[in-house]
């Protein structure tokens, strides 16, 4: 019998307004210096503005945005026989969400001239319409994996 206790994965908390754990993950990604209340305001106002602009329910917009920007495959560098190859691998579900939120917030912050709330709204609307830089990043990742699919047999090493 092993003496160590099993390491159980923590359950994700839900946000107070939508009762959704994925919204809480986005809030945590937007949060700076531990100021969760400010991050909640930014995310909730951005979702409300996007819903107002698109005339749809905020959670429908959020779920559609997630499906539009969540990658399925990525490339990983693997060194085989002195050469480095970009090997396409499938992404675990947790990492998929992590990458999607990272790209959404990163490209929202890259926009200039307006408050973060408006930048996140613009990125959400663009991602909902399958345009925008977060969607482009997903497509680039998939193109890279598709271009290197001949090397997929190296993924077992």
TrEMBL record:
**CDD domains (alphabetical):** uS7_Bacteria (cd14869)
Can the keyword Cell cycle be found in this entry's annotation? no
The answer to whether keyword Protease applies is no
| Domain Small ribosomal subunit protein uS7, first and last residues per copy | 2-149
Q: Which SUPFAM superfamilies match?
A: Ribosomal protein S7
Family, similarity comment? Belongs to the universal ribosomal protein uS7 family.
Q: How does it assemble?
A: Part of the 30S ribosomal subunit. Contacts proteins S9 and S11.
Summary of the function given for this chain in its UniProt record: One of the primary rRNA binding proteins, it binds directly to 16S rRNA where it nucleates assembly of the head domain of the 30S subunit. Is located at the subunit interface close to the decoding center, probably blocks exit of the E-site tRNA.
Protein name per the record: Small ribosomal subunit protein uS7
């Amino acid at each position: 019998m092993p003496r160590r206790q099993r390491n159980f994965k923590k359950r994700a908390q839900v946000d107070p307004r939508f009762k959704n754990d994925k919204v809480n993950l986005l809030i945590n990604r937007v949060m700076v210096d531990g100021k969760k209340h400010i991050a909640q305001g930014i995310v909730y106002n951005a979702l409300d503005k996007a819903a107002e602009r698109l005339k749809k329910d905020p959670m429908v917009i959020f779920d559609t945005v997630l499906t539009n920007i969540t990658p399925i495959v990525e490339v990983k560098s693997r060194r085989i026989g002195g050469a480095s190859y970009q090997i396409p691998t499938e992404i675990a579900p947790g990492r998929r969400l992590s990458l999607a939120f990272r790209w959404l917030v990163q490209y929202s912050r890259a926009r200039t001239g307006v408050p973060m709330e408006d930048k996140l709204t613009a990125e959400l609307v663009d991602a909902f319409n399958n345009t925008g830089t977060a969607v482009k990043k997903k497509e680039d990742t998939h193109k890279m994996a598709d271009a290197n699919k001949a090397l997929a047999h190296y993924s077992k090493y």
